[in-house]
Amino acid sequence: MAVNHSEVQTSAVKSSHRPLILIACMLSMFMAAVEVTIVATAMPTIIGDLGGFSLLGWVFAVYLLTQAITVPIYGRLADLYGCRKMFFIGTTLFLIGSVLCGFAPSLGWMIGFRALQGLGAGAITPIATTLIANVYGPQERAKAQGYLSSVWGVSAIVGPLMGAFIVSHFPWAVVFWVNVPIGLVAMAILIKYLPPDGQRKPHQLDLAGTAYLTLAVASLLLALLQAEALGYWALALLAFAVVNGGLLVRQERKTPEPLFPLALWDSKVIIAGNVGGLIIGATMMGISAFLPTYVQGVLGGTPLEAGTTLALMSIGWPLASMFSSRMMQATSYRTTAVTGGLLLVGGSLALLLLSPSSGLWMARIAAFSIGAGMGLSNTTFIVSVQNSAEPAIRGIATASTLFTRMLGSAIGTAVLGATLNLNLEYRLPQVNDPVQQLMEKATRSAMDSGQLNMLTDSVAASLHWVFVVSAVVSVLAVAAGLLIPSGDRPRREAQRES
Question: How many CA atoms lie within 13 A of 250 on its CB side?
Answer without folding.
Answer: 8
